[in-house]
Structures are given as C-alpha cells and as structure tokens.
TrEMBL record:
GO biological process assignments: carbohydrate derivative metabolic process
Classification via Gene3D superfamilies: Glucose-6-phosphate isomerase like protein, domain 1
Protein source organism: Paenibacillus uliginis N3/975
Domain SIS: 32-178, 197-340
Protein name (database record): Glucosamine--fructose-6-phosphate aminotransferase (Isomerizing)
UniProt cross-references to InterPro entries, sorted A to Z: GlmS/AgaS_SIS (IPR035466), GlmS/FrlB_SIS (IPR035490), SIS_dom (IPR001347), SIS_dom_sf (IPR046348)
Pfam families on file: SIS
CDD domains in UniProt: SIS_GlmS_GlmD_1, SIS_GlmS_GlmD_2
Length: 349
C-alpha cells in the first residue's frame, strides 16, 4: 500500500471540511458577535504553535484588513513568557487561541496566563469540542477538521477558513459572499493539484525549495515550508517575497525550486522577484488566481481560480497544491508522511 494512507485522503477532504465549518459557524453567530465583532477590543491577538501560529498570521492579516482594527499574531509561548514585550499593557485585549487538538501546552498556558487580568478576554478555535482549550475558554469548533494523521492538512484549511468566515461576518459588506465563493470552488482544483504536484516532483530533482508570499499569504508560505519539512525532511525556507532579495537570494542555484504564492495586490512587484530568481537558475513555480502574459516566463504555473475575490479570501485555496508537494516529495523519497520523524500530533511540555 502507498505510504501516507492517512495523510493523502485528508488532503483531499478539504472542501468537505470547509463546508462543515461553514455550517457550524452559522450555529455560532453569537460567538462571532461576542468576540470578533466586538468593537470594545482595542487589540485582537491570535496565538498558536507551529502550523497554528502560521494560521494565526493569516487570521490576523485578514482581521486587520477587513475589520480595520489592530490585530497581531504571536507564538503562544510569547504570551505566557514575554507578554509585556508582545503587547502594551494598556488597552482592552482579546486573546484568540488557535489549536487543532485544543491540548497544546503552550496555548493553554497562554490563556491561563491572562485569565483574571482586568483588560484581557479569551476565546479560541479548535477541531475538538471536548478539548482542554474548549473547556478553558469559549471556542469555535471545526467539526470535520479532526485528523488521524500527525501533519496538519484539512484541519489547517478548515480552521483558517472558519475564522476568516467569522471575520467576514463581523466585517459585513461582501466578504461573506467571497468566503462562500471560496467554499463553493474549493473542491474544483483538488484533483488537479494532486496530479500537478505528483508530476512536478517525479519529473524534477530539486535540491532546495523556497516559498515566497506576502500579506495574508506570508503565513501560508511558512506553512508550506513546514509541510515539506515535516513530511519529507527536505531543506526548505520561506520568506516575504520582496524580502528574499535582501540577502537570502544568495542561496539560489541550479536545482532550486522557488514557489511564489502570487497575490493580486502586489502582482507586478512579486513577479519581478520571481523573474530575477529564474535568471539566477531557479525553477520557478507561480501559483496564481489567473495566469497571464506576465507569468509566461515561469517554468510552471498553477491557476487556483477565484479571481473575483480578495487575496485574503483566496488564501486557503493555495493549500492543497502546497500540501500535495510535501506529500509527493515524501513518497518520492520513500518516506512515510504518516510517520514524521520526531513528531507527535499534540505537543506537550
């Protein structure tokens, strides 16, 4: 049997997980009004560890842009160990814990560390309604995000989508329609992403992989990097797209794969970076809502669609291809992505 018998089907279940999250969110609109839509909070802080921290970055970026109020993202450990360095003491705060299992020691300690403080409230998002975090604070629950595999795939997508949909509901305007569009189109490209990633890995021999993304895609680029490391033990890094030009580009050589998560907001600037990396010898893959003459230079282009929605709403649509790249790299190296070295599904300290 092929390696990854747990991970592979879970990547393919993302559309169903998003639909279930959408239905559950409709039942938790009081939560949205109480927390995400509450203007009393002067700062909203999203926290998580590992993949959950990268989710938190995308959630915070979406909150800032759609709701136009301050939000930030930190590793959970920064809040219980360096809280005053992470957030100024004054002002009403909302701490939002992000954890697939709801059992990560760091997120539970972070929430505990602010309980009883006059200007802090807490809430969370998880896939497990009976988890420690869900008992500790009021949580959104992504019901179909539960996974048997160690590596986060559909849980990441479903929780990110669910929180963005909550932010959209609080923001008003057309953002909820954008999230519905994403949900409706999410399944259309999954099989294509699978075949594309498989061919990309089988037909090339990359020695290093760099993921580039900006705005709400920076957290997604970091998550893509982590997926490749976790599943296949591959040397990989992630950067803000334009930041990569300031020193890190020195690592580019023949055999390098550069994956650009192309935004529409910064499209022309980001493509200039990708063209430069190709000139240095990199194989360039551009993932975009819509290919055009400006992407023709790339070695490969993958269209995810949903060109009519914002970059933020489209963020989760990048993930299936990125996860499949990690999966097929592992299989190609005869590594089982279901059994990542040194890792467990829940990290406790």
């Amino acid at each position: 049997m092929m390696k990854g018998k747990l991970t592979y089907p879970e990547i393919g279940q993302q559309a169903e997980a998003m639909a279930a999250a959408w239905e559950q969110l409709a039942r938790q609109q009081d939560w949205v009004e109480k927390y995400i839509g509450n203007p009393a909070y002067e700062e909203v802080i999203f926290i998580g560890s590992g993949s959950s921290y990268y989710q938190a970055q995308t959630m915070a970026a979406t909150f800032r842009y759609w709701i136009t109020r301050p939000a930030s993202a930190f590793p959970s450990s920064e809040i219980f160990l360096f809280r005053d360095q992470s957030s100024a003491k004054q002002g009403k705060k909302l701490l939002v814990g992000v954890s697939r299992s709801g059992e990560s020691t760091e997120v539970i300690l972070a929430i505990d560390s602010v309980r009883g403080l006059e200007n802090w409230d807490t809430c969370g998002i998880t896939c497990y309604e009976d988890s420690g975090m869900a008992k500790q604070t009021e949580c959104l629950v992504s019901p179909f995000g539960k996974e048997k595999s160690t590596v986060m795939t559909k849980s990441f997508v479903s929780m990110t989508f669910m929180m963005q949909a909550a932010i959209a509901a609080a923001a008003g305007g057309g953002y909820s329609n954008e999230m519905r569009t994403v949900m409706d189109q999410a399944g259309a490209k999954i099989a294509e992403a699978d075949a594309f990633a498989k061919g990309l890995i089988e037909n090339n021999d990359f020695i290093k992989t760099i993921y580039l993304g900006m705005g709400s895609y920076f957290g997604i680029a970091q998550e893509a990097c982590l997926k490749l490391k976790e599943m296949s033990y591959t040397w990989t890094e992630s950067y803000g797209t334009l930041e990569f030009r300031h020193g890190p580009k020195s690592i580019i050589e023949q055999g390098s794969l550069v994956v650009l998560l192309l935004s529409e907001t910064a499209r022309s600037y980001e493509l200039k970076v990708a063209e430069e990396m190709k000139a240095y010898g990199a194989y360039v893959l551009v993932i975009t809502a819509c290919a055009g003459d400006d992407t023709a230079f790339a070695d490969a282009v993958f269209e995810i669609g949903a060109i009519d929605v914002s970059d933020e709403a489209r963020a989760v649509m990048y993930l299936p291809l990125l996860q499949y790249i990690g999966f097929w790299t592992a299989v190609n190296k005869d590594v089982d992505p279901d059994e990542p070295r040194n890792l467990t599904q829940v990290v406790k300290i």
